[in-house]
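Can anyone check this?
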Amino acid sequence: MTITAKYASTCTTCHQTITPGQQIEWERGSTAVRHTSCDTATTTTAPAAPSAPAVTYETIGARVYVLGQTFALRDAIKSAGGHWDAERKAWWIGATKRAELEAAIAAAKPADQSSYRPSKCKQCGRVPDRRGWPRIYRSGICSDCYRDEREEAEMGY
């Protein structure tokens, strides 16, 4: 995200001073900031397949970060040698292995979408309120009906 710097800091890419008022690249939850015109940081977009989640590759120094919806592709990224960067909340791999990573992601089959989840109880017909109560379990019954079933089973009814 491009923002205007409010405070003086140091670019994490070129290690030069960032003065207040300069345009910088910053990601929410990250302490890393860099100049928008910093020549060592490049961003490219991966060719998107119609069924694959869109990801982007960002090269910073000797690392290539994989950004976007990567959860479905995590196994392919791991198999290519990717590592998780918790601070940036992104996968990364050495710049020399970028071609292997792109091939692994292109060949990866995204994880299947979750199956149908009921929106109302099969037994009593209750619909959760705005807070999500009572909970509707995957079995299709609400937490109240489940509790009643458990109590009846314990009492021997």
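Reply from J.R.: I decoded it. The chain has a mean pLDDT of 83.
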